[in-house]
Amino acid sequence: xxxxxxxxxxxxxxxxxxxxxxxxxxxxxxxxxxxxxxxxxxxxxxxxxxxxxxxxxxxxxxxxxxxxxxxxxxxxxxxxxxxxxxxxxxxxxxxxxxxxxxxxxxxxxxxxxxxxxxxxxxxxxxxxxxxxxxxxxxxxxxxxxxxxxxxxxxxxxxxxxxxxxxxxxxxxxxxxxxxxxxxxxxxxxxxxxxxxxxxxxxxxxxxxxxxxxxxxxxxxxxxxxxxxxxxxxxxxxxxxxxxxxxxxxxxxxxxxxxxxxxxxx
Amino acid sequence: xxxxxxxxxxxxxxxxxxxxxxxxxxxxxxxxxxxxxxxxxxxxxxxxxxxxxxxxxxxxxxxxxxxxxxxxxxxxxxxxxxxxxxxxxxxxxxxxxxxxxxxxxxxxxxxxxxxxxxxxxxxxxxxxxxxxxxxxxxxxxxxxxxxxxxxxxxxxxxxxxxxxxxxxxxxxxxxxxxxxxxxxxxxxxxxxxxxxxxxxxxxxxxxxxxxxx
Amino acid sequence: xxxxxxxxxxxxxxxxxxxxxxxxxxxxxxxxxxxxxxxxxxxxxxxxxxxxxxxxxxxxxxxxxxxxxxxxxxxxxxxxxxxxxxxxxxxxxxxxxxxxxxxxxxxxxxxxxxxxxxxxxxxxxxxxxxxxxxxxxxxxxxxxxxxxxxxxxxxxxxxxxxxxxxxxxxxxxxxxxxxxxxxxxxxxxxxxxxxxxxxxxxxxxxxxxxxxxxxxx
Lengths: 265, 213, 217
Known about the structure:
The structure holds three protein chains of three kinds.
Chain A: H1 3-6, E1 24-35, E2 38-49, E3 53-58, H2 64-71, E4 79-84, E5 87-88, H3 94-103, E6 104-107, H4 119-130, H5 135-148, H6 164-176, E7 182-186, H7 194-209, E8 213-217, H8 221-227, E9 230-235, E10 238-243, H9 245-250, H10 255-263
Parallel strand pairs in A: 3-8, 3-9, 6-7, 7-8
Antiparallel strand pairs in A: 1-2, 1-4, 4-5, 9-10
Helix pairs in contact in A: 4-5, 4-6, 5-6, 6-7
Chain B: H1 7-41, H2 44-58, H3 62-72, H4 82-107, H5 111-119, H6 124-154, H7 166-177, H8 180-210
Helix pairs in contact in B: 1-2, 1-4, 1-6, 1-7, 2-4, 3-4, 4-6, 5-6, 6-8, 7-8
Chain C: H1 6-43, H2 47-62, H3 65-78, H4 85-110, H5 114-122, H6 127-157, H7 169-180, H8 183-216
Helix pairs in contact in C: 1-4, 1-6, 1-7, 1-8, 2-4, 3-4, 4-6, 5-6, 6-8, 7-8
């Protein structure tokens, strides 16, 4: 019997639910970002509570991915402030960036698994290097996480041997291995064949149910409606409309949102 | 054939050729990686220095680099033995060519790989050494193997400053028995064998030790 | 002892550099013609030809140019022909160049999609027509940058002709270094002349490369 099967880890929560429910874990204030003279984020204010699941929707070019990428410092913004778990984002400080990124996991549209490392090593690399996690504990945790995303048997496989859906689930396990407080999902099903979308969304949904704080840019409106606590519609670099899924999808207020929603059908 | 009676000398020469190549490959690759890093990620001064070095070496003949070190430097008070001069010349030569090869590999790294590593809180050194470099080396390994082979073949020139490698041994034999053509045929054939063996060895080495599972 | 000024050194080196240029051109043009012949013979796909040409390129790419020079130098002498360093160096460098160019161009031809061959054949073109009208014009465009790049290798390769006694830039440098007792200065000057010859070619090859990439995107 394999080690992984012996451990009854299958039902253990992926993320420890945070006790301090209600306090904002991500706080974005008056954030502005431009590429040269082209302003793509024109003053964003957003508070995200612990355990909250937020779906960001909008046309391409509305700034939604840029906003997400600002939250873990992949994009540099010019004005405003951003804190995660009350750690401020300071681009100039490697220490501050490390502290922030330890708390923020990210999953990408194009998976971005490290092609030269096996699935298990992909998951274990950052905990080993950044958290100096001891090998045995690291391996156990990686196996446990891969088991949770349904890929326990792929531990020694190489990324190019996996389907897109499987690669994306490994990417989720890799992000979770750092025990982030917030998980950013940037159109994580957009590069997948339609039949593979479901397996990835199911994993995300289980994370949401376990109390993980999630910010996701998504085109899957049904999924957003089902899982999100709050939906944010971005338009031309601003939060144009926000509210519960019922409000936004059921009773859109602005013409832009109405037009966006009707364009989806 | 009387030439073949000289096989100990030829073998000794071949052994030194292999030794020179091994040393040059090892140190030269380290130099090349630092140079490639400098050219892509280094501060402006590093970029400039590495660029000048690469262009200077790639646009002058190896024999001149070798003569400069061996005949030229003593005039500046730096006296090198033939062996030292040969090793340095080979390292410096391989370093420049391999730097360009490795740089191409590094620059081909998809942005997403780096962003993924950043979002996992890895620092610059960790990202370069663990995420960027290994796939880059794997991608350009065949080109590196070719370059090492070229440097090995180029090392024949080191015999000209009396480094006792394979071409030197060949020359010594022909000057003793005056059967120049036969001696050079055998010496050349040995280089061919070395080149083929080196290519197979490095290809195997890469798969077995560098890019295995 | 005669005093040598920097200008004396330089002017002598430049005079000798003419022979470097001449040898490079002979090798490059001769090697190009032979290389092209080898390429066409190879493309016929006749197994004997393909195998012989593979062996030819493997020998020239798998052995030191220096040894090739010695072999030619002593080999021609063995035939009873009294040969000069100039002739043997020209032949050796030409053969060396032909092997490399044939291999570079083969890569370019192979990067032309199979469909081009099939389309031409299905239009009942002959092998000659197919090559001259369809394949080579397309391959030529991709082949120019690496071919120009290889010219740099040829120029640097001619330095080895000094070893069999041909007086070109490197040999002249050695001779001048011996009489001036200023090897550091002389070899620096020699390196500078080579650099002045090679660097513009390198830059041009890189420029062509970039242009090609932009055009193909």
